[in-house]
Protein 1
Amino acid sequence: MAPVTRFAPSPTGHLHLGHAYSALFAWHTARSEDGRFLLRIEDIDRQRCRPGFERDLLEDLDWLGLTWERPVRRQSDHFDAYRSALDALQALGVTYPCFCSRRDIALAAGAPHEEDGNGPLYPGRCRAVSVTEAAARIAGGQPYATRLHVANAVAITGQLDWTDRSAGPQTARPELLGDVVLDRRDTPSSYHLSVTVDDAIQGVTLVTRGTDLFAATHVHRLLQALLGLPTPGYHHHGLLTGADGKRLSKRDGALSIRALRDHGHTAAEIRKMAGF
Ligand code: GLU
């Protein structure tokens, strides 16, 4: 079946070669298989995202020669959709409020794992807070995040599978990332929740993204099962690295598409640098 792919950048900085690679990967996959290519702006983090970066990334992608279907989905326009999904999860009894600060978690965890680079794996402390105590704390105005109770969720769904075009069939292991956050005190959704909802709403049938998000897919598979959403195919691709062997990051300003363009590189040259 002709795939529907997407590129889903966050406007927290300028696109670099690694993003160009990921965007071109999704675009070429769609083009070469008579599919469709969609774009999504992942801007739920209102502190870090800037409209100027969104404008610039659309311009960069256009300059690189990519074409996409309109309208572009912007996550900050759809908080109501994520809220409904969260309500559905709450009704299933697979969430709990977490009152821990990032500092509490860092101190309690001492684990080397990271939940998407956002901090250490959550040690599950607030699972033990009783419903009455949680209600009292919330009524008292204590800030909290909502977490997915992975063990309770898996007890409902049973074992789940998904397939990666490169790595092959996978048994879902959502416990690898722990009880992930579904909404935060300052953001009424989370990466995991909004991505899962949006891929379904946009009708994405093949999610292509970097291997850095491989573990996240186990969680997304669980959310799909809980929310009754379809499971797309996946293709996690390798990540471009810099001269130091480290994966490119937005902090490498020198490698931004804009900087390369300002230095006189053509779009064809940049596509080639990114491997296309
Ligand atoms: N917004 C994410 C990022 O910029 C990509 C999410 C995804 O492809 O699922 O890293």
Note: The CA atoms of residues 157 and 225 lie 7 Å apart.
Protein 2
Amino acid sequence: MKLKSKDLLGIAQLTKKEVEAIFRVTEDFKKKKRTDKPLSGKTLAMIFEKPSTRTRVSFECAIYQLGGLPVVLNSTEIQLSRGETIPDTARVLSGYVDGITIRTFEHQKVVELAKHASVPVINALSDFEHPCQALADLYTIYEKKGLSGIKVAYVGDGDNNVTNSLIFICALMGIPVSVASPKGYQPKQEVIETAKKLNPKAEVAVTADPKAAVMDADVIYTDVWVSMGAEAEAAKRKKALRLYQLNNALLGACRKKDYIVMHCLPAHRGDEITDDVMESNKSVVFGQAENRMHVQKAVLYFLLGGKDAN
Ligand code: CP
Ligand code: NVA
């Protein structure tokens, strides 16, 4: 079995077996059981239409450590910003490089790039999904808690890329997830339906009550209230989401002693998460960020190396 898709556009493209295979290879790379350079001579173009710290640096380090070369393309510096089309960009880059990552706004752009590129395309965050983040999140949960018998709670903006990918990967892996968000910021119906298609037994609960969501959770997750591109709505969002902050009062409602706190970062301390919680011994956010690199090595290994996922 190879990864069934040429690309990684979203979690919904993966199977449970493929995620497990990605995690096995991740572990080998992370624990340095593998120190070879399986992507020697391969080149990865990385298009950014939004800022990035983790995604950019973790992908650059990942491809370099596997023997390859990253080529970072800020969209303002390439002809895409002067009207060259996505299909033309896809075809040109496919003549030079072995894979392309793209961070952009409309998910459809990622889909279009993949359609016209002959090389693998990896979604490095679109407005709809952030699959590399979700893989690193689940790998972190696997490391800290294992994947059986656990429950995940997400508190905050339930209608963004990180939440969508988290819901999909939890559904795929059979992990119950409870999302607490106010009306207007809850997951879209199509996301719940896709989760059910991925796994008819998926347990995805949506509530407006953050205490109810965290009560029996083993993992408590949040993301920014104002995603990149939504800055014009900042004041409205901060008002609507103010009761959905990970703080000690809310976490006090969790009945589990050994729960962990996660955040994809960057964090806006004082908004969706307090300093206390970020710095507490429950917080695994920096290990979670590190895992982006280890997981993405496995993704690159399968997609650019053309390796069998079995
Ligand atoms: N979590 C994440 O994708 O971070 P960056 O925006 O810094 O890449
Ligand atoms: N939801 C956030 C994630 C940042 C990694 C955003 O899109 O800005």
Note: The chain is about 40% helix and 15% strand.
